[in-house]
């Protein structure tokens, strides 16, 4: 009933090992997940990250998902990580989320990443500022 409709999901992500952040979101996914099935058909996606560590929200003890806290939205194409980047993706994901090493291998896990095309920073109740991808 929701075929062709936008669909959200929570996925673990990493932009690199703790000492080597790249800004490129990597994901460890399974084709058994409907989200991944959809992304393999239509790779356009968006990712919104709340201001978890910003000064305003932390200082005022405000929930990071509160509209007064900043959030960053990335949009772009989700692609399978090419073979030459798999080792980096593995280090990125496993160093930040060690639990994934214990996930059942029968689920055919593989790595995807987002090729970012647009970045928007929303800093307060709807004020949105575009940020150049190069930045």
From TrEMBL:
Keyword Glycoprotein: yes
InterPro entries per record: CREG_beta-barrel, Split_barrel_FMN-bd
GO cellular component: cytoplasm; endomembrane system; extracellular space
Predominant localisation class: secreted
Record's keyword terms, sorted: Glycoprotein, Secreted, Signal
Signal peptide span: none
Domain CREG-like beta-barrel residue range list: 2-135
Keyword Nucleus: no
Subcellular location field: Secreted
Sequence similarity: Belongs to the CREG family.
Protein's UniProt name: CREG2 protein
Organism for this UniProt entry: Prunella fulvescens
